[in-house]
Amino acid sequence: MIKRSGENTGSTEHNVSGSDHPNKIDAIGSNQVLQLNNNKDITLLGLSKDELLVTESKKAIAWLKPGMNYIYDSLISGTIQAQISQVNGFDAESPKILVVDDHSVSRMTAVTLLGMEGYTVIEADGGTAAIEMVRQQQPDLILLDVMMPEMDGFEVCRLLKQDEHTRLIPIIFITALNDRRSRIRGIEVGADDFLTKPFDRVELVARVKSLVKQKLLNEDLDHAAQVLFSIASAIESRDPNTGDHCDRLVRVGKAFGEYLNLSRYQIRNLMWGGYLHDIGKIGIPDAVLLKKGKLTPDEWEIMKQHVLIGEKICQPLRSMQGVIPIIRHHHERWDGSGYPDGLKGEEIPYLAQVFQIIDIYDALSSERPYKKSFSAEEALSIMFEETKSGWRNPQLMKQFAEFQLLRQQQMESDGVS
């Protein structure tokens, strides 16, 4: 039996008992009233005196009703945005379209039509030139001919969709081919749409506009997710004692998820949870987060807020909805003695249960300021002891132990110590 002192169970923070404490994050993420410094700022935005009066009155009301600030933020923002010149429904910087066709007449027809619609159009006369142009220019959409010498459109599409930097760019195949086999092959390599030569101008413009809007939306979501991952990485770097904790959680999460036959999306959420589970620690003071001794009851209540802060940070992104249960609930316990909601048994989201076991095992098997690292056998022994105490899902804990045994055997057979 492995003996331990205190309540440290391998979680990444110090655990002490304490009384209930007021929620300290009520103000986090609250909307701020948009303020313009003076009338000159309004004039520069092109607002009339009437618009200025409306804007200023909204500001005054917003200050009187802080809880409604977000309504007036949206109103003012919309007024300003209306002053920005637009092309085809997009901001003043017109979307960039790459037309790829080895036949100059066909290429120029598309270039002319799109140019008349206000797009910035660039050209390539073959597959190799197209790939180079994409890497240099990063277009918002590609019109791609299928039948080209040397490298056909299928191969160009396949290469671009496999590249992390170009996979979000929509590709419309423009071809004289109208057979079912060609369309199926196009779908297989990642084409987003098809147009048959000779194409109709109205149809071309409609499809281009729709896909460009979708691309810009996807790009915004993708960039927002990248920002969250960058924040999570910065948080991990605040504590040099955790090492590559998040990277290990991602690797083990993928392997254990596959062992449990989870779906592709569940495995993705489990891996993202590895990076984002402690993102809320950005709101925890260093004096608490990095304290080497035991936390006081008040400090522990502050530390426990990180799951709620993390949930609030990720809540606006739809792509993070599957990760949020992990962020909020990875410190719940099977018997209901965890936090923040005291959930019991199967009330705890399944992915949060899975992630919690991975997280605790990694913490136990890693050295921290308040504990030495345990061997695999010692770590599992401690976790089984906690399971008997009612903290873990017994079936899931058994599956994790079997997974670790198989993993260890595989590493030994591969000659990895």
UniProtKB/TrEMBL annotation:
Record-listed 4-aspartylphosphate modification sites: 145
PROSITE patterns per the record? HD_GYP (PS51832), RESPONSE_REGULATORY (PS50110)
Segments carrying the region annotation (Disordered) are: 1-24
**Residues annotated as signal peptide:** none
- InterPro entries attached to this UniProt entry: CheY-like_superfamily, Cyclic_di-GMP/3'3'-cGAMP_PDE, HD/PDEase_dom, HD_GYP_dom, Sig_transdc_resp-reg_receiver
Compositional bias segments (type: Polar residues): 7-20
- Residue ranges of every copy of the Response regulatory domain listed in the record: 96-212
Q: Check the record and name the CDD domains matching this protein.
A: HDc (cd00077), REC_D1_PleD-like (cd17538)
Q: Where is the HD-GYP domain?
A: 220-416
Question: Has the keyword Disulfide bond been applied to this entry?
Answer: no
State the Pfam families in the record: HD_5 (PF13487), Response_reg (PF00072)
Per UniProt, the keywords (alphabetical) are: Phosphoprotein
Know the name of this protein?
A: Two-component system response regulator
Source organism of this protein record = Anabaena azotica FACHB-119
